[in-house]
Amino acid sequence: MVRAGLTAERLAVAGAELADEAGYAGITVSALARRFGVKDASLYSHVKNVRELRQRVTLYAAGEFIDAIAAAVAGRAGKEALVAFADAYRAYALAHPGRYAATQHQVDPELLAGSTVMARTVDTTYGMLRAYGLTEPDLTDAVRLLRSTFHGYITLEAEGGFGHPREVQRSWERGVQALHILLEHWPRSDEGDGHHD
């Protein structure tokens, strides 16, 4: 049994793999201890509890997620960037359902403070939207609309929620095109500057 070399980072990677196999709720200290062939107590020298373990998986998955999106968007602008962003978002979520589910959870500020994931996510997302000329609070509103639209569509798709014979891929493509048109004609707010999240 391999016991040497356990770190919080290795546990996060293994936890992400476990999430895809057993779901986000399936990430437990006991399950990971079995995977590494050690007792539960061995893991507690690297993570305080299951909450921290799951949050480390969230950070790891979020980093992997935004890196895939950033690679897809690189060198693109406007509609082309939006399509690349949307397609990479959907591809990751469908290929890694447990990891994607992990990215929907909040991370405690002290754990987040040691990570660049949030900054990379903001830079990539706002960079993709730059061509649309949005400012706050419209920028935050647009990000929330895109995220909820992508999430809702992907969740329904993954659960087999689309029963109509219309090809799901074509509806996705048309939906992203409609979002592009909406972003080009976004109703401008007169509320002044706000904050993103």
Write the layout of secondary structure elements.
Blueprint: H1 8-22, H2 29-36, H3 40-43, H4 50-73, H5 78-95, H6 97-103, H7 109-112, H8 117-129, H9 138-158, H10 168-184
Helix pairs in contact: 1-4, 1-6, 4-5, 4-6, 4-8, 5-6, 5-9, 5-10, 9-10
Briefly characterize the structure:
This protein is mostly helical and 197 residues long. The chain has helices at residues 8-22, 29-36, 40-43, 50-73, 78-95, 97-103, 109-112, 117-129, 138-158, 168-184.
User: Can you tell me the residue ranges where pLDDT is under 50 for at least 5 consecutive residues?
Assistant: none
Shape summary? globular
Beta percentage is under 5%
**Sheet with most strands:** none
Distance between the termini: 44 Å
**Rg (C-alpha, Å):** 19 Å
Q: How many beta-strand segments?
A: 0
H/E element string?
HHHHHHHHHH
The computed structural class is: mainly alpha
Arithmetic mean of pLDDT: 93
Helical content class: 55-70%
How many H/I helical runs?
A: 10
